[in-house]
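Appendix C: a fully annotated inverse folding record. The material below is reproduced so that readers can follow the format used throughout the book. The structure is listed first as C-alpha cells, followed by the designed sequence.
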C-alpha cells in the first residue's frame, strides 16, 4: 500500500458519493493498523473546499480529492486497489501543506 494509491471505498453505502479513497499516509508507516485516507468525491455531490481540494481525473471521471475529509481507517478495510493518482502528486502535496501548515 503506497501513498496516492486509490482503493474502492470500503463502505458500499458511501460509494454513490465517494466511489474511491486515496491513501495519504506514507508507505513507511505500513506497520500501523490504520491508514490515513481522503475520499475521491463525485463533483456534483460536494463543492470544492478551496485550496484543500484537488480535481483529479480517475476512472474516466472528474473527481474531487477532498483533504478536508481526512480520516484514518482500518488497513484491512482497503481491499480493492484501483490505481493511483500520482500524476496529481504536486497539487496534492500543496493541498496537504495547506491543511497542515496553512501555507
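Designed amino acids, in order:
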Amino acid at each position: 500500500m503506497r501513498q496516492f494509491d486509490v482503493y474502492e471505498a470500503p463502505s458500499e453505502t458511501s460509494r454513490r458519493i465517494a466511489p474511491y479513497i486515496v491513501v495519504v499516509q506514507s508507505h513507511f508507516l505500513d506497520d500501523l493498523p490504520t491508514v490515513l485516507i481522503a475520499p475521491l468525491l463525485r463533483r456534483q455531490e460536494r463543492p470544492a473546499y478551496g485550496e484543500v481540494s484537488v480535481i483529479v481525473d480517475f476512472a474516466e471521471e472528474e473527481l474531487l480529492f477532498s483533504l478536508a475529509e481526512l480520516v484514518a481507517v482500518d488497513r484491512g478495510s482497503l481491499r480493492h486497489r484501483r490505481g493511483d493518482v500520482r500524476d496529481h502528486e504536486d497539487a496534492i502535496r500543496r493541498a496537504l501543506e495547506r491543511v497542515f501548515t496553512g501555507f
